[in-house]
């Protein structure tokens, strides 16, 4: 069976109203397409928690910092729809650009605090673009639950803050990062890696895991991060944008480990920018 594809918000609302008459709960999984197992894990999680699941597919120009990145972004709608059907997703909402940004569109949603630093520092305007489009997708779908990947950990925080601050009645659920067997976090941008880059890429995750283990065992944070940064460069990455320890709950910067934390990184491998993060749990607080 095929998954129905809807392109107009009016049609989407008619379908959602029918589901509401059946008292069905509704989940949304926002994506930019080029679906891989990471996305599909969100769809499966959504199907476990809600009666109806809407996957959205919109390559959002407002969140790209470079025209080249936007132009190179993979667009594979037919294949994406074919991957969703066997899972049992109920609808693919792939809106026309005018349904999201109609003529004269002049509003932006800007989230402070959690969007500052990390990717926010290196991709100016990116999180405004994400918050704006996700606010629209939440309001257009009227979903009760939304599923996002922890791979984009700062995005998860931005979206959660936005929904709370705007009183959008939706619960934002974070799902664990899905990885290749060699540890590389799945990402639509991985297809841009050359063979040699693809072989070097998983070292980012392994260095991150090693550093997280050392910090959890009490190693000094700044020294461990300096060594990990050097190791990433030695592994063939040409630039480390950031490598930081932040509190898991609110992303505040940490110089020492005294609460559940995340170690987050963004680094360039050739012309591809990869991000990743791992949990760092203080061992002392677990045993006490
Ligand atoms: N490896 C992954 N594991 C779990 N969730 C993921 C993974 N990769 C992406 N996601 C999630 O899928 C949703 C849509 O992400 P998106 O379409 O940007 O895919 P992507 O692979 O992250 O692409 P890219 O990073 O190249 O933009 C987001 O919530 C994102 O966090
Ligand atoms: C959440 C999102 C679909 C908004 O365009 C995008 O940032 C993504 O794919 O992670
Ligand atoms: N995965 C987050 C979307 C982006 O990189 O633009």
Automatic annotation (TrEMBL):
Top EC class of this enzyme: ligase
Binding locations of beta-alanine: 63
Positions of the catalytic residues: 39 (proton donor)
Location of this chain's protein in the cell: Cytoplasm
Keywords on record: ATP-binding, Cytoplasm, Ligase, Nucleotide-binding, Pantothenate biosynthesis
GO MF annotation, one: pantoate-beta-alanine ligase activity
Biological process annotations from GO: pantothenate biosynthetic process
Residues that, per the record, bind (R)-pantoate: 63, 155
Pathway: Cofactor biosynthesis; (R)-pantothenate biosynthesis; (R)-pantothenate from (R)-pantoate and beta-alanine: step 1/1
Positions annotated to bind ATP: 32-39, 149-152, 178, 186-189
Quaternary assembly: Homodimer.
HAMAP family per the UniProt record, alphabetical: PanC
PANTHER family reported for this sequence: CYTIDYLATE KINASE/PANTOATE-BETA-ALANINE LIGASE, PANTOATE--BETA-ALANINE LIGASE
Protein name: Pantothenate synthetase
Species for this entry: Roseovarius azorensis
